[in-house]
Amino acid sequence: MDRGHSHDRQVLTDVLAGFGALVAVIVVGWVAGRARVLGDGAAGVLSRLSYFVATPALLLLTLAEADPGALLSPALVASGGSAVLCALLYIGLARWRWRSRPGELATGALASSYVNAGNLGVAIAAYVLGDASYVAPVLLFQVLVLAPVGLTVLAGSRAESRSRLLTQPLRTPVVVGCALGLIVAAAGWTLPPLVRQPIDLLAALAIPAALLSYGMSLHGAPRPASGEGAGQVWLVVVLKTVVQPVLAYALGRWVAHVDGVALLAVVLTSALPTAQNVFVYATAYDRGTRLARDTILLSTVLSVPVLAVVAVLLTHPS
Question: Measured between alpha carbons, how far is residue 302 from residues 38, 146, 190 in Å?
Answer without folding.
Answer: 30, 23, 41
